[in-house]
From TrEMBL:
It comes from Novosphingobium fluoreni. Keywords: Oxidoreductase. PANTHER family: PROSTAGLANDIN REDUCTASE, PROSTAGLANDIN REDUCTASE 1. SUPFAM superfamilies: GroES-like (SSF50129), NAD(P)-binding Rossmann-fold domains (SSF51735). Gene3D superfamilies: Medium-chain alcohol dehydrogenases, catalytic domain, NAD(P)-binding Rossmann-like Domain. The keyword Oxidoreductase applies. InterPro entries: ADH-like_C (IPR013149), ADH_N_2 (IPR041694), ER (IPR020843), GroES-like_sf (IPR011032), MDR_fam (IPR045010), NAD(P)-bd_dom_sf (IPR036291). GO terms for molecular function: oxidoreductase activity, acting on the CH-CH group of donors, NAD or NADP as acceptor. Pfam families: ADH_N_2, ADH_zinc_N. Residues 14-331 form the Enoyl reductase (ER) domain. This is Enoyl reductase (ER) domain-containing protein.
Length: 334
């Protein structure tokens, strides 16, 4: 059982020495529990936060433990009558070949078929797709004709948000890094406008967003924070809503940028709403069914960036921070 351990807490950007890959015995199921052979693991920006020893919505990953990750896999051994050996499951496990699932933990069966591949449960049909769906539908509540601005727009969450925004009748503007990603926003995901944030100062970003949204932005779906958010607040229409989904530009920063000009929020009567997908766990079946329907109807495109092998976990993870990933970043383990 190869396991990718957190050996030391990263100071800023993670380095390879913060992790170690060890081989241990394959575990046996605890009473009432399971052992899962992981096939795919989700690599998420949130994992960077879990590596820090700071107060958050989940405890930090203990040093010496494998890096926590959502995985999909097959039941390898079972002491639970509800789970048969060979059955596909999804759960909050770790970057390791085999994970132990305890009774009452977050493990659920998944239907792998012609419509849904195992890795789809880490992308469009998993937390990422549901983050886009519930964050937009239930928190932002966009009205047809409103202007929606998405940062991190070519990423897993952002590309889904933009496409769902189009389905809901919004005008959708995306901010992403580099000309290739901006082309994908327009050609692959159907955004109305795309803005490349790289190499642009505050004034240039504000000018470009304003040109794309002359009447102001009604809804911001924020994945990035920092300088991007700082520019966005100068482009808000009155009563705009900002859904604070993520702040990836700050995850490796030793000094957080923060929002410098809160006055813009006040003057524009805007709202900032923090959002965590975990709060919608009781509605995953509903959101998953809608996402599956849009996928099967061809209304939604969900790209996956599948990297190979636990031994490449570090390099794969860092793609999230260089922007190398094209679509939902997934690590194939088995
Ligand atoms: P993505 O697929 O979007 O990958 C991360 C992307 O972030 C990169 O491709 C890169 O795109 C961009 N990025 C990285 N560093 C920076 C930076 N310094 N400045 C600007 N952009 C940067 O990842 P996810 O879709 O999985 O996650 C997107 C966001 O959603 C994250 O902030 C994550 O924490 C959040 N999230 C929140 C959830 C919640 O419940 N609130 C649940 C799931 C995700 P580019 O090339 O465009 O720079």
């Amino acid at each position: 059982n190869r396991r990718f351990l957190l050996a030391r807490r990263p100071d800023g950007e993670p380095v390879p020495e913060d992790f170690s890959l060890v081989t241990q015995a394959i575990p046996t199921p605890p009473p009432g529990g399971l052992v899962v052979r992981n096939h795919y693991a989700s690599l998420d920006p949130a994992q960077r936060g879990w590596m820090d020893d700071t107060e958050s919505y989940m405890p930090p990953i203990p040093l010496g433990d494998p890096v926590r990750a959502t995985t999909v896999g097959v039941v390898h051994a079972s002491d639970n009558p509800d789970f048969a050996v060979g059955q596909w499951v999804m759960g909050l496990n770790a970057l390791e070949d085999y994970s132990v699932a305890v009774p009452g933990g977050f493990t659920m069966p998944i239907a792998v078929d012609a419509v849904a591949s195992p890795s789809n449960y880490l992308s469009a049909l998993g937390a990422v797709g549901l983050t886009a769906y519930f964050g937009l539908k239930e928190v932002a509540k966009p009205q047809p004709g409103e202007t929606l601005l998405v940062s991190g727009a070519a990423g897993a969450v952002g590309s889904a948000v933009g496409q769902i925004g189009k389905i809901m009748g919004c005008r959708v503007i995306g901010i992403a890094g580099g000309p290739d990603k901006c082309r994908r926003l327009l050609d692959d995901y159907g955004f109305d406008a795309a803005i490349d944030y790289r190499g642009k100062d505050h004034a240039a970003l504000v000018t470009e967003i304003t040109a794309a949204a002359p009447d102001g932005v009604n809804v911001v779906f924020e994945n990035v924070g920092g300088a991007v958010l700082e520019a966005e607040v100068y482009t808000l229409a009155r009563n705009a809503r900002i859904v604070l989904c993520g702040l990836i530009s700050e995850y490796n920063a030793t000094e957080k940028h923060g929002l410098q000009n809160l006055w813009q929020i006040l003057a524009r009567r805007a709202t900032i709403h923090g959002f965590l997908i975990a709060d919608y766990a009781h509605r995953f079946a509903e959101g998953g069914a809608q996402m599956a329907q849009w996928l099967s109807e061809g209304k939604l495109r969900a790209d996956e960036d599948v990297q190979q092998g636990l031994e490449n976990a570090y390099d794969a993870f860092m793609r999230l921070f260089s922007g190398a990933n094209t679509g939902k970043l997934v690590l194939k383990i088995a």
